Amino acid sequence: MPKRGAFIVIEGLDRSGKSTQAAALLRRLQDAQVSAKLIKFPDRTTPIGKMIDAYLRSESELDDRAIHLLFSANRWELASSIEATLRSGETIICDRYAFSGLAFSASKVRPGSQSYPLLDYDWCRTPDAGLPAPDLTLFLDVSTDAAKARGGYGEERYEREDVQRRVRDVFVRIGDQVEAGGGRWEVVDADESEEAVRDVIWDAAKDLVKGVDAPIEKLWDDKREVGNVEALYM
Fold first, then answer.
1. Count of CB atoms within 10 A of residue 33's CB?
2. Beta bridge partners of 12
3. 7 pairs with which residues across the strands?
4. Which residues form the Thymidylate kinase-like domain (predicted)?
5. Do residues 10 and 21 make contact, with C-beta atoms less than 8 angstroms apart?
C-alpha cells in the first residue's frame, strides 16, 4: 500500500491558540517539503457554515439539537474531500474537528442546573460516527486566566468560564475514549509561550511527515473502545 497523507487535528479550549499553531505547523511542514493543507471547522463559508456563524455570534437562536446536527453536517460536507486528499499523499492539518462538536454540545446543562446534562453524550457522538479518524489529535489545554488575557475572549457564545470548565471535562473524557480505541491523543500545555507550544506540537507530529502506511480509520468505529470506555466510566 502506498503511503498516504497524515490527518492531524488540533483541538482545544477557546483562545488556546489553535489557529495560530495550526498555521505554524502548516508552514513547518511546507518548509520540510511536505505537501500539506489546512482546513478549519466550522467552515463558515458554506450555506450550513453561515448558519453556524450567525449562531456563534449570537445573531440567531437555534435548538441545541439542531445546532449540534448542523455542526456535524458541516463536517460531513468535507468528509469525502478529506479522504481523497489523504489518499493523494497530502497531509491535512485540521483546526477543530468532531471532538469540539461533541465537547461543546455534551457540556451543555439544563436551565437552572449546574451539572445536569442537556444532551446525552452518546447522542452527541453518533452523528459523527464514520467520519475520517485523525492519525493524531493535539489538545491545547489552556487555563482560564491565560485565555482571558488573550485578545477577543468573550466575543462568542461559549467563551464563559463556567462553559469552558465543563467543555474541558468532556474533552478529558473524549481523550480517554480516543486512547482506549487505539488512537493518539496528546495534551499540550497551551499556557506556555507560542514558541514552546509550537515545538511540542512539532515533536508530536514529525514522525508522520513522511506519510502513513495504515488505511484511513473511521471515527468511533473501533468496537474495542466500547468495552474499554464503559470500564473507565462505570
1. 7
2. 140
3. 92
4. 10-200
5. yes
Q: CA torsion, points 86, 90, 96, 102, in degrees to nearest 10?
A: 10
Please name the residue ranges forming H helices in the chain: 18-31, 47-56, 64-87, 98-106, 121-125, 144-148, 161-180, 194-205, 224-233
pTM of this prediction? 0.89
Helix, strand, coil share of the chain (percent; to 5): 50, 15, 35
Structural domains for the chain: 8-233 (3.40.50.300)
Contact 79, 94 (CB under 8 A): no
Decide: 93 and 10 in contact? Cβ < 8 Å.
yes
> What mean pLDDT comes out for the span 130-158?
82
The residues, ordered by sequence, that sit 6+ positions from 43 with a Cβ below 8 Å of its Cβ are 49, 74, 77, 78
CA 13 to chain centre: 10
Name 95's bridge partners.
10, 40
Band (pLDDT 50/70/90 cuts) for residue 225 is very low
Residues facing 11 on adjacent strands:
139
Q: Helices 224-233 & 161-180, crossing angle to 10 degrees?
A: 130
pLDDT on residue 83? 98
Task: Quote the DSSP letter at residue 218.
Answer: B
Local confidence band at 124 (pLDDT 50, 70, 90 cut-offs): very high
Q: Under DSSP, is residue 139 helix (H, G, I), strand (E, B) or coil? A: strand
Half-sphere exposure of 136 (CA within 13 A, CB side): 23
